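Appendix B. Raw example, untouched.
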Amino acid sequence: MKSLAQPGHNNDGFISIDDVANMLCVSPRTVRRLVADGLLPIYRFSSKLVRFRAEEVMAAFAKVRVPAKSET
């Protein structure tokens, strides 16, 4: 897993779907699927704007096993 570089990111503690995808080395589509399945905690600011807290994502992801493409 990649660490999230601080420069250039908001100081409010929230990160985007793309940031989460980069952190976890998965696609944004996978992040959206994990959210839809209730496996990642989100903060919804509007119907289209969702954000995450990096520490909560890492804690949740430690409990989630994402199957490899060949397993599906």
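End of appendix B.
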